[in-house]
């Protein structure tokens, strides 16, 4: 007698569940990556995300997705008020539409395919930049898919222009893994902690595979209304790049074409086309935020182009506070494999560090190392006095690396000893500890706070700058013990996480 196991076509989820049951029943140890949802595009708008422009006091950009049947999409915007039908006065604008091929693509090199997206149909991404807005003002906006298919109204506030106004922003290191299962908790906890933040910096490796539409689905859906109301300053990391498989089976490592389809970021005319929307600046009152593409380290010409642009942009910047964010750390804290140079990137350090020190960049916010690290380069007077970290010293630049996802690495045994000739001191570390950061600008200070995912303070310091541009770093006196793999809870490999 023949027995039919399955009488109907089975979903991949059911097949995996069956295989897992059989393997466990036979006493086999099986590691199956957890499944995640992957909603298909429809005529309704989804994956809506707001991003800043060069001038966020009078404009912001929005990008969203539909299926490829929607060839003409719209956005509406109106200044927020107390009326029940504020929408009556909304202005309507036609969006720019981009056909995004998920499985097969075309760039300036040739045709290629993304194996992660085999079988997925083309989708349309639509984008709008709302311009000529009033500063420090709430606006209501919505976007459309097919005729009559509008998103709910969203509310967003433009940046202030008053140089004396205090404001804060969020900063996250790598999410990358567990972007469906773990990352949303950290993002939402941070937003709850600082609901009035003006923007959020995501310092690269948002996903693990830059070409995977499913992983981008997880990342973009993790925030939902947060992404729609809190402008995202996005940094391209090495995992936003991916292998593009060409028709001749050759592979090219390049920025995923999904990056520029999904996001509308400031353009930088002075830079080559390969760096557009990955190296840019956005201006807030008394604060300029410069974004660099450190994964361009594979092309020394692109590194030098960014260094030259950064030098000129810092030279003309009149902001009191200058912040640089990039993915790869100037000073690496992790050696993978253990006791190896691992994560160190000397080409990046050679290209950017002299520019940062020349212009006394205040804060460098980074990712990549999957650990927490904070250090600084002091003035010559402090270097001559002591090499021991102190709670208060004169500094040129402070460097921070953090991780927001559950994939974490150990700090290398040498710490930053090999960088001693640069005058840099590693002053605080953290292992096995995802964090989020709230950074606040006041009239005279930049206040930095790092929190664990349960909302506990982990690190805190204040930068105070006098009229001559000299900075004092003051570290909070009562910080918890440094967290390491030895004094924290169990850690399990990230390989079975729900991406």
Automatic annotation (TrEMBL):
Task: Give all residue intervals belonging to the Purple acid phosphatase N-terminal domain.
Answer: 45-158
**KW Signal (keyword) present:** yes
Q: Where does the record place the Calcineurin-like phosphoesterase domain?
A: 169-372
Q: InterPro entries, from UniProt? A: Calcineurin-like_PHP, Metallo-depent_PP-like, PAPs-like, PAPs_N, Purple_acid_Pase-like_N
Keywords tagged on the record: Signal
* Pfam families (UniProt xref): Metallophos, Pur_ac_phosph_N
> The organism sits in which domain of life?
Bacteria
What's an example of a GO molecular-function annotation for this chain? acid phosphatase activity
Signal is among the record's keywords: yes
Alphabetical list of PANTHER family matching this protein: ACID PHOSPHATASE RELATED, PURPLE ACID PHOSPHATASE
This protein's name: Metallophosphoesterase
| Species for this entry | Paraglaciecola mesophila KMM 241
